[in-house]
Amino acid sequence: MTMYQANRERLIQKLSEDRTAAIIPTSPPRTRNHDCEFRFRPTSDFWYVTGFEEPGSVLVLLPEGTKEKPELRSVLFLRDRDPLLETWNGRRLGIERAPDHLQVDESRDIEDLWDDLPGLLSGYEQIMYRAGEEEARDREVLKVLASLRGKARGGILAPLELVDPSPSLHELRLFKSAEELDLMRRGAAITHQAHAGAMGLAKPGMNECEIDAFIDYTFRKNGSTGQAYTSIIAGGENACILHYVENKMELKDGDLLLIDAGAEMDYYATDVTRTFPINGTFNPEQRQIYELVLEAEEAAINLVKPGVPHNLVHKTALGVLVRGMIRLGLLEGTEESVIEDESYRRFFMHGTSHYLGLDVHDCGSYTVGKESRPMAAGMVFTVEPGIYIAADDETVEERWRGIGVRIEDDILVTESGYENLTGSIPKSIEDVEAACAQSVLENAL
Ligand SMILES: [Mn+2]
């Protein structure tokens, strides 16, 4: 059984309890400009239950059988083969080969989707469908519901409501299986090569875009599906722009380089940040900020184990950062007063952790009622504190200005504690400076 089939089996358990059918579409191709499209990337929900990469497909899941012995009927709607279009736009699996290749019960032409759906969905009380992502598709789904209601007068049960995938499918996605973790570990190994290699490659006078290209090259050469998100290659004060993705400025002697980049392995994300000196050696101010961020990151990682509320990651990292910034003279007051008045937000303005999986900011609820959700084995999340001192911040001594540091790892919660999936990527001052001194040829190419 493939992991995608196993994922479908787990979903059926949840769906059959409520007599819920599911419509799970993948996204349409997106236009980049004029008549050029972005390289296609399947929607995560769809990929999770199919492992199918073609655009223009919709999976319909129909629980049948009884509660005690649930059975799932899976119907995949997809584009049929077309020699002319395949010559222009690429190969298609086609209707005939789909059941064998994807272990679905049935395959049908995507052209028939909206005509066939009312028949397939009649008799179900709820339809799992994520509304609000594609307006045209939402309208078609509502038309199907309306037509079923029309028939309900004839004694056929019509679905009462649309339900969101978050309590069912997204809760499954939150807990990673052994196969998924294997993919995430492989993504982490490739990401290690890219970050360590970049430390050796970067030199004053190079351009951020060269590092960007090297990272992407390393990801794809090693079998990754590419970047899990647009890489951030931020030299010097660019690191203080949290989502800096222009990646086209010169790397300067004496500056740090912050790289936030992760390989995607079979569409599973890695999300890693490292910050290192472009000339290979931290100056005293950079070193002090770096060591503080590292202390915060490690303190937050060390508390990870089942049962601990997830928001303790942020609280712990924040406490370390605030105490350190007061000690360095960047902030005034006590730990309590600085956290109370939020004056730390000038230097640390983002959260410390998010779930990670098929989406870089993965699905799954962070709360239970009003409380932070307890960690549980199988969850993967990032830990990523940072300090960013704007180049024009005149409230601090000049020597601190323009320093931006973030350190980010991917943490798996295990039965007994945690596993840092990306912890071997150089991180201590000594390891980072050693990686900077190493030739990129030894490291990655
Ligand atoms: Mn992140």
Question: What does this molecule look like?
Answer:
The protein is built from 14 helices and 21 strands. The chain is of the alpha+beta class. The chain folds into two domains: 3-172, Creatine Amidinohydrolase, Chain A, domain 1 (3-Layer(aba) Sandwich); 175-443, Creatine Amidinohydrolase, CATH 3.90.230. A six-stranded mixed sheet has the order 6-5-4-1-7-8, sandwiched between helices. Helix 1 packs across helix 2, helix 5 packs across helix 6 and helix 8 runs antiparallel to helix 9 (208-221). Bound molecules: manganese (II) ion. The site of manganese (II) ion has 5 residues, from loops.
Summarize the structure.
The protein is of the alpha+beta class and 445 residues long. Helices cover 36% and strands 18% of the residues. It folds into two domains: 3-172, Creatine Amidinohydrolase, Chain A, domain 1, CATH 3.40.350; 175-443, Creatine Amidinohydrolase (Alpha-Beta Complex).
Query: Span between N and C termini?
Result: 36 Å
What is the top-level CATH class of the largest domain?
Alpha Beta
The percentage helix is 25-40%
Low-confidence stretches: none
* Largest sheet features: 6 strands, mixed
For the biggest β-sheet, the strand order reads 6-5-4-1-7-8
Strand coverage percent: 15-25%
CATH topology of the largest domain: Creatine Amidinohydrolase
Secondary structure class reads alpha+beta
- If you compute it from the alpha carbons, what radius of gyration comes out, rounded to the nearest whole angstrom? 25 Å
- List the total number of helices: 14
**How many domains?**
2
Bound molecules: manganese (II) ion
Number of strands: 21
Shape descriptor: globular
CATH superfamily of the largest domain, called what? Creatinase/methionine aminopeptidase superfamily
CATH level-two architecture of the largest domain? Alpha-Beta Complex
Mean pLDDT over all positions: 95
